[in-house]
Amino acid sequence: MKNIIQNINKAFDHRIRLGIMSILMVNESADFSTLKELLGVTDGNLASHTKALEAENYISVEKQFIGKKPNTSYKATQEGRNAFKNHIEALEKLIQQS
Amino acid sequence: MFFKVLYMDTQNYLQDLKEIKELMNKSTLFISLSGLSGILAGIYALIGAAVVYYLIENHEGYYITLESKTFKLIVLTAMVVLLASLVTAYVMTVNKATKAGEKMWNSASKRLLINFLIPLITGGIFALLLLRNGSYGLVAPVTLIFYGLACVNASKYTLRDVRYLGITEIILGLLAVEFSGYGLYFWVLGFGVCHIVYGSLMHFKYDRK
């Protein structure tokens, strides 16, 4: 029982962070506005959660200009992918047990 | 007490998993394709085929050459059918997407369109080159096969049904190579009947809720 709970990742213990990772798991990359639209959150809210994931080194951020508009796009790192997979597996096990 | 907490957690985690799945689908698949537009496209194709049949029946002389008026009218009919189908599909899909609260131009729909257009435009150019080189008999099979490939390619980014439509078109296209001379009938089957069948299937499966 203790082992399973250890694998539940604190960094993903929030809906929006879990959402960001879910999208980045199945897409090569996603930009800020796409994430915002899919998750239905405000700019500030999304920014704080992407920063948290970036701090954990789970996602990488790339800033560039498309024409004159600044564009921020996010990618899941290998570390983030592994962490997300472990987290999901832990969730599944926990659900199976109860 | 401990069990109650555990139960609540389990419910939350189940909800998490459900949301993860939804986000994964929503961010990669464009699911607002309208089944009804498929049915309409099929009907346009049948009307177009009837017009072409009438043109051929009333053609004077045995061969239909590239310069003849009949040929130009046939090409015009095909273009009108194609354009009407595309406009209908666009309008109805925008409509459905708006209702579902999905944006028409998101990364999923762009990816769908690009992957659909690559085989389709290749096939279109190929068909035009065949016409220029006088291989009229292969035009019907080639358009069917490439349209089928376009559907199969696009199906990774939308509803599964599009994949089966694509496979059906490819099979019809290959058969049409064997039975050359019946190109118009295969067109009727592929672009008319198939669209109506798959369009209805999708309409009843997804739209009528």
From TrEMBL, chain A:
Domain Winged helix DNA-binding: start-end pairs: 16-95
Membrane-traversing stretches: none
Recorded GO MF terms: DNA binding
Highest taxon of source: Bacteria
InterPro entries the record matches: WH-like_DNA-bd_sf (IPR036388), WH_DNA-bd_dom (IPR027395), WH_DNA-bd_sf (IPR036390)
Keyword Hydrolase: no
Keywords: DNA-binding
PANTHER family documented for this protein: BSL7504 PROTEIN (PTHR37318)
Protein name: Winged helix DNA-binding protein
Organism: Flavobacterium cauense R2A-7
From TrEMBL, chain B:
Keywords: Membrane, Transmembrane, Transmembrane helix
Protein name per Swiss-Prot or TrEMBL: Uncharacterized protein
Transmembrane annotation, as ranges: 28-56, 71-91, 112-130, 136-155, 162-179, 185-204
Top-level lineage group: Bacteria
